[in-house]
Please model this.
Amino acid sequence: MQGNVRPETMERITTPELANAFIEEQVKELRAQIGDKKVLLALSGGVDSSVVAALLIRAVGQQLVCVHVNHGLLRKGEPEQVIEVFRNQMNANLVYVDAVDRFLDKLAGVAEPEKKRKIIGAEFIRVFEEEARKLDGIEFLAQGTIYPDILESDGVKAHHNVGGLPEDLRFELVEPVKLLFKDEVRVVGKALGLPDNMVFRQPFPGPGLGVRCLGAITRDRLEAVRESDAILREEFALNGLEGKVWQYFTVVPDFRSVGVKDGKRTFAYPVIIRAVNTTDAMTATVEDVPFELLQHITGRITSEVENVNRVLYDLTPKPSATIEWE
Ligand code: XMP
Model:
């Protein structure tokens, strides 16, 4: 199999034709590597794991077992889309695990951001391990490692990190897109027939909405993050900002403020909108969203999202702020 260094002669995959050639070659290599054995994949629904799933479905079909863990911190509609695209349309062997209560119980009362990240990561591995133990005859573990992961870290990214599995569950790795850059993974995903909103979607942190529901996560504030994020994404798409703005999302802090609705006093949470542009996520500038659109989104969020009475727009570049709030 390919090493961990991208050959200088390797052509950048920029067209459907080049993507198809890559797919053809990978399908051959994957079949040679895997034979008639089974492969396991943690399928988050993000670009990288989705492209790996689609490649493996093409190469080995039902020998691929995808495990989709719903940890309750996904965006609105994401688990449904994973089931629709992979189980219904691509006929994948997909195990859907509803682990929402389990994650939220573990996270209850935990306010420190890094502790929250650790709990989410550790619990993810535990759930994945339990599912892996239920399956017989798995010999390979597929991962959506991409080239920047190899260049920037030890080759394992946080949300694909199932490397923490115990000794007896160490499988041979299958990493078919590990020499590709993100834009190439997207071109390949498109050639594999994945929907645009999966292939071209904005970055989403591994701990998901967990780091956007600030402090100790509560179900009411988590729903406020999910619903306000869905409205923001819908409005950005309707107004030509989808695909133009690098990353945009909402955050709900763990304090309330006074407001008024239907002549009655309210005491509810604010929603903070963040929309930024960057090339490498090391620095970022704030998107100049038209004021009327911000007012329109504010109106929708305050009338449609429960427990919210105020909306703010974060004007801070990185530095001094980070892109996420936690
Ligand atoms: P910050 O907040 O550090 O974010 O400016 C830079 C980029 O990284 C993403 N991010 C994460 N991604 N796990 C991830 O997989 C994480 O824990 C995490 N924290 C931040 C963030 O969304 C932004 O794109």
The radius of gyration is 21 Å. The chain has a mean pLDDT of 95. The chain has ten helices and ten strands. Strands lie at 38-42, 64-70, 93-98, 138-142, 172-174, 247-251, 257-261, 264-277, 285-286, 308-313.
